[in-house]
Amino acid sequence: MTSQGRTLPKRLEDFLRNWSLPRQFAGEDAASEAAQSEGSKGLRPRLEEADRIGTSICPYCAVGCAQLVYAKDNQVLHVEGDPRSPINQGTLCPKGAATASLLANPDRLTTACGGRTLCYGSRAGRWRICRA
Q1: 45-132: CATH number
Q2: From CA 125, how far away is CA 105, in angstroms rounded?
Q3: pLDDT tens digits, 77-120
Q4: Is 45 exposed, middle or buried (0-12, 13-18, 19+ CB in 10 A)?
Q5: CA angle 83, 63, 81 (to 5 degrees)
Q6: 65 has a pLDDT exceeding 90
Q7: What does the pLDDT look like over 11-33, one tens digit per residue?
Q8: Where do the domains of the chain lie?
Q9: Four-residue CA torsion sign, 31, 91, 74, 124
Q10: Burial of 66 per CB tally in 10 Å (0-12, 13-18, 19+)
Q11: Which segments constitute the 4Fe-4S Mo/W bis-MGD-type domain (predicted)?
Q12: Could you tell me what percentage of the chain is helix, strand and coil, using 3-state DSSP and rounding each to the nearest 5?
């Protein structure tokens, strides 16, 4: 006996039945359900639950790469490059791809400084307003 109480021949039989290549070699169409395994049948796209898709521009450099922002309940799920943009053609650099982290950071500044400069306080570990 092996793992989960199944013998090696039984495990091999289950593997071959669930593996898509033997079904495709037997003549089933590769674009049909023959290409699906039991595990892949239950998978869903992670962006399927997004209720809004917005457009944005990457905040990091002056190139101006276009972004698609996927959100659900006003929370950003994912940021990716906009393939319609002639500038970046759907690609983002690593900093641009991390824009979702910037938006979800609880320490992100959410208000303007009103002409004052901001300093990072070494003691409290928070931003504080300083006189210029």
Answers
A1: 3.30.200.210
A2: 14
A3: 999 999 999 999 999 999 999 998 888 888 776 665 555 555 55
A4: exposed
A5: 25
A6: yes
A7: 888 777 777 777 778 777 767 77
A8: 3-41, 45-132
A9: positive
A10: buried
A11: 51-107
A12: 30, 20, 50
